[in-house]
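COURSE: Structural Biology Practicum
ASSIGNMENT: Worksheet 4, Part C
STUDENT ID: 0417
INSTRUCTIONS: Below are two proteins. For each, the amino acid sequence is given first, followed by its structure token string. Answer the questions at the end about the second protein only.

PROTEIN I
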Amino acid sequence: MLFDKDGWIYPGNRSNDIHLISEYEINQLLFLADEDDAWSGRVREEVKFKMQNPSLSASNFLLDEFRIMNTAGTMIHFPYGDRIITFNSKRHFYRGENQIFSGSLPSLNRKLIGKNKREQELHRAVANLRIFHFRNFIWNINVVPFWHAKLSDVNYKALAQHYGFDTHLMDLTNDFRVALFFATCKYIPKTDSYVPLTNSIINAKEENKYGVIYHSPNWRIDYISPGGSIQWHSQHMADVRDRPYSLDSGDLDGMAFQIGYQPLMRCHHQSGYIFPMRKDHPIQADNRFEVLHFKQSPELSQRVFEMMDGGKKVFPYEGISEAKSILEQIKNATVFSEDDIEYVYNFEEVNKVIFPTIENFKNALTNMYYNNEKIIIQKGEIVYPISQDVLNSINEKYDNIDLFAVIGGMIHQKPEDKRYLEQRCIDIYGKLF
């Protein structure tokens, strides 16, 4: 099994084509994943050499810029406003699912099925209110404000997605091994961990008997690939905006955005990308993805589970895990403050035709039920108590991490990025350090 010159496994692929692959072919894809690692490593070393030798003339300025953007340790800007620090880009994207679904959609999209436009707006708002609480809660962890002040922005929505909150974001990865893990192992919510598949799980229903891998060449959908970036900007060059696009707007649908390094570690351990999907078009209908099916077996599942160190390589135990009960409270929150409502109304793409004023929006929320719970709006801030002992324990796990080493020992940022971070440091801590 090889990729053609354009990065496809099956040239001439159609989105409804399903390709059954064997375990032998899975092994070939694992070998190609090692090759992709080596390729991205060589690109990074070439970029480092050029950065350390600025007198060398650029062979192609635009190409060199894209090579830098795709190299670990580079600060880049996305149209939704965030500046992130990259991990190494690779040449392929994957998504793994451990059973056959008729239509693969983000978690929030699935919950909006069957609801009218007004109901969808309110349920979307509740999801974003909960993410806003998540954002406020994790600010208590020392590494989060420090990261904001010294390294980059924090993508709270992507983080929330990786810790079980409902969003319009689909997860992708540039590492076949990560996708294969999710395609061959089962998530256990109670323990927030994965286990290998057993015969009883595989044979419980027909759709469990096959795992699924979706594949697309990087150039086809990655925002920071030359093709992806040029395509997106050409489609939006006439847009006149006074603020960044929202991940919920629909304007970013169909592009993959690297999550980059983040203060909580799960995203980059999974080489994670977000793929916004505000519109209800399942990934199966997107002909930029090839669909690979393979037969599940306990033996394959156990082998992949062990290869990924019992899941630790993609699902590392983190300090935030000690606050799991609080995160569960936030995921099910139905009490919000007036400030929360104002933030979501102004910044999370609430439909102003359906809710022309914030008062219309508040009244609609307080007259709805979410999973049989009435929505309550109060004046004061919503606080999720955490004991000082637990908070200290969480902080200890992050405070001792060498963040510079985590991001690969190199940061490439432009002067305006440096000034931006200096101002953030002053805003957060009142001084530069």
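PROTEIN II
(use this one for the questions)
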Amino acid sequence: MLPLRNPRLDNPMGRLPTSFVNTGDADEIRRLAEKHGISFNEAVRQIVALYFRQPFPLSSKRMGDSKTDRLPEMVAPRHLVESIGVLASSLGHTRGEVLRQIIRGSLRKRHGRH
């Protein structure tokens, strides 16, 4: 019998949490996605992956109620999903709050703001 490999096992996937983000952040993600010819979801996945390659401190405080656009629940590599869970647990936040802070911080770093 031929040994068969399941490519999904080589790159196991999970689901990023759904989260609310600031409308301006969501619009900026859409612009970045369009500029680079990728989907909105792929842009979010790349932002999260970049954060874990070049991490910055997240706040132990919640960002507040400036969240108006809802990100869809999306598939992402399991190691990213699990890493968000670990951060959420260590900060005492929900996974959605951690995702929101990663997105906000990454977009601000892109513009040279911290």
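ANSWER KEY EXCERPT:
Q1: The chain has a mean pLDDT of 87.
Q2: Residues 15-66+73-110 form a domain with the Arc Repressor Mutant fold (CATH 1.10.1220).
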